[in-house]
Amino acid sequence: MSLTLFAVYFVACACAGATGAIFSPGAWYESLKKPSWVPPNWLFPVAWSTLYILMSISAARISGLAGENELAVLGLAFWAVQIAVNTLWTPIFFGLRRLGGGMLVLTLLWLSVFATCVLFWSVDWVSGLMFVPYVIWVTVAGALNFSVWRLNPGEKPVTL
Asked: A Gene Ontology CC term for this entry (predicted)?
């Protein structure tokens, strides 16, 4: 695995993660009704940091195997899609306060993460395995987004 490739992928992940600092949950999120099973706030940065490291390692491994391998190239294309969609969720959910829009983004994110996982697994099972925690986390995030959306039907989005 190339450390340079790892660094490039990690920078992409860090840019996605930076949206959390720009559009922080704050008092608005704290005031929302949430399900009893919502993870504690401290878990989110720990989970995302771990996932971003695993995502970067797996993409760097696949990049090293890409060459003429169409599945590796397609997997990397889906990696790019999932990190772009990942970047959209925080501004839509926390920035614009669009709970339904966040759900749409999470659905697209889940599909692109799952596709990346399957494609990576078909090229290098270790890289695919490193994406499994991400699939699980996005599944939980989707359930949480859906629950918050349903528990707060009158929540008004930010108007521009």
From this structure: membrane
